[in-house]
TrEMBL record:
Known catalytic reactions: (6R)-5,10-methenyltetrahydrofolate + H2O = (6R)-10-formyltetrahydrofolate + H(+); (6R)-5,10-methylene-5,6,7,8-tetrahydrofolate + NADP(+) = (6R)-5,10-methenyltetrahydrofolate + NADPH
Domain of life, source organism: Bacteria
Keyword set, alphabetical order: Amino-acid biosynthesis, Histidine biosynthesis, Hydrolase, Methionine biosynthesis, Multifunctional enzyme, NADP, One-carbon metabolism, Oxidoreductase, Purine biosynthesis
CDD domains: NAD_bind_m-THF_DH_Cyclohyd (cd01080)
Annotated EC: 1.5.1.5, 3.5.4.9
Record protein name field: Bifunctional protein FolD
PANTHER family linked: C-1-TETRAHYDROFOLATE SYNTHASE, CYTOPLASMIC (PTHR48099:SF5), C-1-TETRAHYDROFOLATE SYNTHASE, CYTOPLASMIC-RELATED (PTHR48099)
Length: 296
């Protein structure tokens, strides 16, 4: 079997086009422009690229983009004061603090200072609790993107066996909650899971989010399964820099029914879903109906 390749780049472009169409209607009918504030502390090269792409795609969708670039030695008090200003700013419907933050800053404290209604990353403890109890929340962008692609590929997910490899707060745990919300039978596996290969082979849906290059190999994949690769690992091979996922693509694609590539799979969906969340936050803040198909 050769797997169908799920084209995240094309999927994300479609999500962004839907967001842009909603934004145009909001402007025309309500005189509203959704606004996203992105805060970057320091000069991590990958984060700089992600923040630049977020700003560009926000503007392309017709929304207002507010970028705040702060030096690496910014104090916690100054960062908290900026978050407080953004919380109070009516032009800002979504706030995102780019991670990772420099080590001297308490990420948890800063994220939990964001107004939960503006927490378009879905990392605030209130949103984590709401998602965990099946209530309306802001949903983390990467798992939301994975869910959208899975729903599109499978139609209904109810009753499918899903295995999520990885237990991070940003991807693994919310991914498991979302799959449970769609009535999958969910297993969360991790580095200390006994006989990981056997657990993975039970999965109709296998989500790899462990942060270890090419750890999930074809022998760990059930024939016909859908494999979602969340990993983004920069490695060197044959003297060349390469980007690989947590899945060994060639061996897994030979067994799977469908698979996301790296790059061009889950990654582009992260920013597309950030735009979708900003639109959702703007609609909720103004008591308007939420955009269909762009939320969990
Ligand atoms: N506050 C947040 N910080 C971080 C998040 C997040 O969701 N919120 N996620 C990641 C980084 N990230 C967005 O911030 C992100 C990662 C990857 C991509 C992407 O499009 N990847 C491409 C490859 C790009 C490359 O060459 O590096 C792909 O997979 O095709 C977009 C956004 C950590 N921080």
């Amino acid at each position: 079997m050769t797997a169908r390749v799920i084209d995240g780049k094309a999927f994300a472009a479609n999500v962004r086009a839907q967001v842009a169409a909603h934004v145009a209607r909001l402007k025309e009918e309500q005189g509203l422009t959704p606004g996203l504030a992105v805060v970057l502390v320091g000069e991590d090269p990958a984060s700089q690229v992600y923040v630049r792409n977020k700003g560009t795609q926000t503007v392309e969708a017709g929304m207002a983009s507010f970028e705040h670039k702060l030096p690496a030695d910014t104090s916690e008090a100054d960062l908290l004061a900026l978050v407080a200003r953004l919380n109070a700013d009516p032009k800002v419907h979504g706030i995102l603090v780019q991670l990772p933050l420099p080590a001297h800053l308490n990420s948890e404290l800063i994220i939990n200072t964001i107004d939960p209604a503006k927490d378009v990353d879905g990392f605030h403890i209130s949103n984590v609790g709401l998602l965990g109890t099946g209530q309306k929340s802001m949903v983390p962008c990467t798992p939301l993107g994975c869910l959208m692609m899975l729903r599109d590929h499978h139609g209904k997910l109810a009753g499918l066996n899903a295995v999520v490899v990885g237990r991070s707060n940003i991807v693994g745990k919310p991914m498991a909650q979302l799959l449970l919300g769609d009535s999958c039978t969910v297993t969360i596996a991790h580095s200390r899971t006994k006989d990981l290969a056997e657990v993975c082979r039970r999965a109709d849906i296998l989500v790899a989010a462990v942060g270890r290059p090419e750890m999930i190999t074809g022998d760990m994949v059930k024939p016909g399964a859908t494999v979602i690769d969340v990993g983004i690992n920069r490695i060197e091979r044959d003297g060349k820099a390469r980007l690989v996922g947590d899945v060994h693509y060639e061996s897994a694609a030979a067994v799977a029914g469908a698979i996301t590539p790296v790059p061009g799979g889950v990654g582009p969906m992260t920013i597309a879903c950030l735009l979708a969340n900003t639109l959702t936050a703007c609609c909720r803040a103004n008591g308007l109906p939420e955009p269909e198909g762009l939320t969990a």
